[in-house]
Amino acid sequence: KAGVTQTPRYLIKTRGQQVTLSCSPISGHRSVSWYQQTPGQGLQFLFEYFSETQRNKGNFPGRFSGRQFSNSRSEMNVSTLELGDSALYLCASSGDRVGTEAFFGQGTRLTVV
Amino acid sequence: AQTVTQSQPEMSVQEAETVTLSCTYDTSENNYYLFWYKQPPSRQMILVIRQEAYKQQNATENRFSVNFQKAAKSFSLKISDSQLGDTAMYFCALLVSGTYKYIFGTGTRLKVLA
What we know:
heterodimer, A: 113 residues, 4-stranded antiparallel beta sheet, globular, B: 114 residues, 6-stranded mixed beta sheet
C-alpha cells in the first residue's frame, strides 16, 4: 500500500509569489490534514478535509487555503508569500475510524526568499 | 482550548539503556486519544504508540510503552533497550474526538549514544 505522497519535496519562492502544494493520501483514506512545521512553533494545524469538505481550520491568515478533490487528493495554496512562510509543510491522511492514527508524508520544504 | 506540553527539548541516552520522555496535556473533553510520533532526520513522521483515553491499561509496542495518568493529564513515553535508530524528534499529540485535528507538543530531540 503506497504511503502519503507530497509533491514537490522542495520549493524556493520569492516574496509576493504564490505556491501550490499537493498531497495524495493513502488509498481509501478520505481525511487529509495539513500542518506547518517550523523550529520555533513546532507543528501547527492548518486545515482538515474530508470528502471534499473542510471540517476544521487552524488559526492561519486567509492567504492559506486548501481544497480536496473527489479522489481525496488535496492541495494547499499560499498566496502573497512572506518570509515567515518558510517551513516544512506536512500532509497527513487518516482512515474513517474515530481516533485513528494519522499517516504523514515526507513534507514539502518551502523556502521564501 | 487543548494544549500539549513537552518540557524536555533535548535528551540523550546510552545505547541499551532506558529513557523516559515527558508529556502533559490539557483538555476539558472526556473522549480523546493520545499519540507519540517519531520524526527521524529523514523527516517522515511515524507513529510510535497510541492510547485511548477511556482505556486505563497503558499501551505498549515492543520496546515502547507509555505511562498514562489521566487524572494528572500526563502521558510519558518509555523507550527500553534504546537503539541508535531511536535517534529522532519525538512528538506527543492529542486528538479530541470530533475535532479532526491533532495538537502537537514542541517535541523532544532524543539522541542515542553508542
